[in-house]
């Protein structure tokens, strides 16, 4: 049997996965849901940067972490790594 991560609160997921590049949710204005999958949902959003600029974007948010097996952390890391390698003007 696998054990759960030591921290299962959604706001602690980035720290638990050692992902310092996650942007705090307080910097976003969220709009409609665009899609949903195993790890969470994607919503249209506006990123309100600290310099005052606003950037339209899509945000993927991990949901119901406490219901995912510990093994899923590797899958999440892999997905994030793959997304970081994408090169497109809209990403």
Automatic annotation (TrEMBL):
One of its GO terms (molecular function) is protein kinase activity. Keywords: ATP-binding, Nucleotide-binding. It comes from the Eukaryota. PROSITE patterns: PROTEIN_KINASE_ATP, PROTEIN_KINASE_DOM. Residues 28-91 form the Protein kinase domain. Gene3D superfamilies: Phosphorylase Kinase, domain 1 (3.30.200.20). It holds the Pfam family PK_Tyr_Ser-Thr. ATP binds at residue 60. InterPro entries: Kinase-like_dom_sf, Prot_kinase_dom, Protein_kinase_ATP_BS, Ser-Thr/Tyr_kinase_cat_dom. This is Protein kinase domain-containing protein. It comes from Acrobeloides nanus.
